[in-house]
Write a structure and sequence with these properties.
- By secondary structure, the chain is mainly α.
- The chain has one domain (45-422).
- Helix content is 77%, strand content 0%.
- α10 (167-195) crosses α19 and α13 crosses α16 (331-348).
- The longest helix is centred in the middle third of the chain and has 35 residues, at 260-294.
- The radius of gyration is 22 Å and the shape is globular.
- It is found in: Cell inner membrane.
- GO terms for molecular function: transmembrane transporter activity.
- It comes from Cohaesibacter marisflavi.
């Protein structure tokens, strides 16, 4: 991209404008300055062609499902059920926090939604039981990124549509890494619980298992409906998302917390979030069109060959780039901006597209826990009215463990690919 559009892009970024506006406008300026203005006549058709993807239909419906469930009273039922299982251990409420995030992941698929919901409920309860507020907030932040890994995941749907990869295979590929992430966080929580003598263990007040299970069954039914329908081939992701939205309304009514006004708010919030996502996609489609005309992907592949990078070396470099992008940018914006340019060369080098999708999704969501603009950290610091940098220090041990797990996923692809391959979802 020439100097004038680059200067405009930098000025727009510094002004605080939304990424859709500065990427889109800089791309259009580049069309003109590079004497490609004649190609702008085909831009609307090109953009609409890229947005006309069936997988995108599932995204607003899963967003709506998460919004409905967040307002429908499921959090308390899931916490009580998790407490009936994990509350008997040292640092039990920390384990409950992580386990609730696993269940919640099958509902919302959003790290920020999970962080906001659990920050308002579990953190005050952990403080009441004797936990330090910094630690309670840190374990909430660390466990919230399970949401975008375990399906249904909005970011995996976004990747699948953007990179023309099977969303069903991505959903299956996210299950094992998500559960491994939960296990790693529980190990760290157990170590810190004994080191700092956290509450829990014998003598703790534990809800009875079967009453807690019966109360939580309506909430637990939602991920079962979604995943069984998709993985068994009964439903497409879009059909499963539609059924999940209807089920979310029924579950909210069952718990007596979801009112007609809440449904309207959820619909309004879904429309706003969906609009924000699609305006980014329009801008990125414009940028992608310019890249194809300038043949930037081919130039990047040639550069990789010239540098003689192996598949693993390029994959490591790619993950470092996306990790820094996740620190500074919105997850979907970072994926949309960098994915079409950097991911195709990795696939040409032999990286499986499903493996790539899980790595990028995991990578970018880890960025939500890293300063200076970690989205989950900002949300929890605001919700809990606590110092941002104290929260950063508290989350550091969990962040290190998550980066180690990311390294394991890079070097052991079968952790991601074994289940999709077993289910016959990989070609």
């Amino acid at each position: 991209m020439p100097i004038i559009p680059l200067l405009f892009l930098f000025a727009a970024i510094m002004s605080g404008a939304g990424i859709a506006y500065f990427v889109g406008s800089a791309s259009v300026i580049a069309f003109v300055t590079e004497d490609h203005a004649r190609f702008l006549a085909a831009l609307p058709q090109r953009v609409m062609g890229q947005l006309n993807v069936f997988a995108f239909l599932a995204m607003p419906l899963f967003i709506l499902t998460g919004e409905l469930m967040n307002r429908g009273g499921v959090t308390e039922a899931l916490i009580k059920f998790s407490m009936s299982i994990m509350g008997r251990f040292k640092g039990g409420l920390g384990h409950v926090n992580i386990m609730t995030s696993v269940f919640f992941a099958g509902v919302s698929g959003s790290a920020t939604a999970d962080a906001a919901a659990l920050g308002n409920t579990l953190v005050p309860e952990m403080e009441k039981q004797g936990y330090d507020k910094d630690y309670a907030a840190a374990v909430t932040a660390a466990s919230s990124i399970i949401g975008p890994i375990i399906p249904p995941s909005v970011i995996l749907i976004f990747y699948g549509a953007l990179m023309n990869t099977s969303v069903v295979a991505l959903f299956a590929g996210g299950i094992v890494p998500g559960l491994l992430l939960a296990a790693v966080l529980m190990v760290i929580n157990a170590i810190l619980a004994h080191r700092y003598d956290h509450p829990g263990g014998r003598g703790a007040e534990i809800p009875r298992f079967f009453p807690a299970l019966l109360d939580a069954l309506p909430a637990l039914s939602l991920p079962v409906i979604i995943m069984s329908g998709i993985l068994m081939g009964f439903m497409t992701p879009a059909e499963a998302a539609g059924l999940a939205s209807v089920t979310a309304i029924l579950v909210g009514w069952y718990y007596g917390r979801l009112k007609p006004h809440d449904i309207l708010i959820a619909l309004e919030r879904t429309a706003v979030l969906t609009g924000a996502v699609f305006i980014i996609l329009v801008a990125i489609a414009t940028f992608g069109y310019l890249m194809s005309i300038e043949q930037l992907p081919q130039a990047l592949v040639a550069l990789i060959k010239e540098m003689d990078l192996s598949k693993t070396q390029y994959l490591l470099m790619l993950n470092v780039i996306f990790l820094f992008a996740g620190m500074l940018m919105d997850v979907k914006a970072a994926l949309a901006l960098l994915g079409p340019l950097l991911i195709p060369p990795a696939i040409l080098l032999g990286v499986d597209p499903t493996h790539m999708g899980i790595l990028i999704g995991f990578n970018l969501t880890v960025g939500l826990l890293t300063p200076p603009l970690g989205g989950v950290l900002l949300i929890l610091a605001t919700v809990l009215k606590m110092d941002y940098w104290r929260l950063v220090r508290g989350v550091f041990p969990f962040l290190v463990a998550e980066l180690i797990l990311l390294g394991a996923l890079i070097f052991i692809p079968e952790l991601t690919l074994a289940l999709p391959r077993y289910l016959g979802l990989l070609t």
